[in-house]
Amino acid sequence: MIQELSYVGFASPRFDEWRGYGPNLLGAMLTGDGQDGAVRLAVDDVGYRIAVHPGDIDEFRYAGWGLANETDLHAYVEHIRSHGVEVHWAAENLCREREVAELAWFLDPWGLRHELSWGKTAEPNSFQPGRVMRGRFVTGDQGLGHIVFQVPSLQEAGRFYVDVLGFRLSDRIITDYADVRFYHINGRHHSLALSELPGHVGVNHLMLEYENIDDLGRAIDLLKRNNTEIMQTLGRHTNDLMTSIYINSPSGVQIELGHGALVVDDLSWVARTYDKPSYWGHRYSEAAMTTKPGIISPIG
User: Fold this and answer.
1) Kind and range of the H or E element at 230?
2) CB of 111 within 8 A of CB of 63?
3) Cβ(29)–Cβ(130) under 8 Å?
4) 278: nearest Cα among 238, 232, 233, 239
5) What confidence score (pLDDT) does residue 33 get?
């Protein structure tokens, strides 16, 4: 089974702006450039977790999901192939680029690319925050963070992501304007969330979690200096109890910066339904009202 959101990749004509945005605002560490020219960012001792490639438009490229070892990866590939998923094994050069031992990839029903791997390169005690921080990012056995996709049909998405891929429902939020499902694969409340947006597909946001709330507060103080707009103000979510803020990025995809989320225990966890996303805060800014949410494209 999948154990973590291991890494993500985007493309953008403004990819180079991540060299400052990632370290100076987020606190990530800039790592060495590959031959492809992408900007790569580490948030822990894993070689890198976020890649932003040169591109003509802002777009989502891939989500990388980590498995425990070689045996699990091969068994999982055979499992999803038995459900009719077309899976491709990557060549050695792509494995080197992603810094993994082995990699397979497939497309979901709407064309979003997912990569499966094991053995991602790591170096103990190598992470150095890009700015002064009191703590670190919450990663470890919870992986990178979470990613939210917008899909045309939650029912169809559930059949694929749950029945085939094995994601487990944490809970859901249903309001007059939104229907969102949250899924876990480890202790993180959700590594994946799916929001229904008929006729469209894409990525809404990527979440990074700080160990220390002061590092979240410091990021808020640094927004103006880094010419970054608030998309949703500081608030606390109903379902995972995370305190967070949503901000813009150089590439259109929103970044949620948070602290203090619940940890899921499958032995005792019961999925709930909530009728609002936040206890308080998370008010949409004027910029959010005039900007499309993340990287979303119409189908067809």
Assistant:
1) strand 230-237
2) no
3) yes
4) 238
5) 62
